[in-house]
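User: I'm preparing a small set of examples for a lab meeting where we compare how different chains pack in three dimensions. I only have the primary sequence for this one, and I'd like the structure in token form so I can line it up with the others. Please keep the answer compact; I'll paste it straight into my notes.
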Amino acid sequence: MSRLPQNRSHRAERRAQHGFTLIEVLVAIAIISLIALLIYSAFAGMSRSRKNMLSVSGRYQAGRAAMQRIARELSSAYMSGHKNFMRLQNQPQTGMIAKKGRPDHIDFTAFAHQRLQENRHESDQSEIGYFCTRNRASGAFDLERRAARAIDSDLTRGGLVETLVEGVDEFELRYFDRVTNEWQESWDSTQPASQYGRLPSQVWVTLILNNGPGGQQLRFEEKVAIHMLLPLTFATD
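Assistant: Understood. Below is the structure token output for the 237-residue chain.
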């Protein structure tokens, strides 16, 4: 009866001397691997969520910045009634020419130029255009902004073009005509058959971007009031 505890103690001592068995090692490795996998999955999920949040936040910021710039420049749109009768050709052209399309296209003159260099012979007048071009890499539209600091005889051409925001699904503009009290899909203040010599009182801007939260679209809308509706005619009396 006294040998049984002694035999058990000997077996325990031998097991301690020989270390873990292969099965015990495999079980320990499996447990550690499972814990490591769970930790990696948690951190990977957090990283993906953070990237998605930053991406969506960036899209919101790009859309809001584009709308703010469009609204600021449209609100300062103008046209001039001044003519240089000493020059019969190449008269500076001011006003607004907006064409319906998918997406839309607009060119206008505005008091929106900011002089960045001191002592440059520039004013706050400029030609501005907004239009979309197809991005060859993504296949989506990019909203472009054209700006020319000199007013020439064609307000639809010239200047520098920069990409304002990428991934545009829709860019739509509508114009409120205070004469007809209706919204128009196009505007041309340079043609007698259209809205000659005047600007719309409001411009309804709709900008829709792709790659929003959950792959959905981001929609931005704003009605921009134009302050100078009639041609400027000071110093012509």
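A couple of notes for your slides: Residues 8 and 14 are 10 Å apart (CA to CA). The chain has a mean pLDDT of 84.

User: Perfect, thanks.
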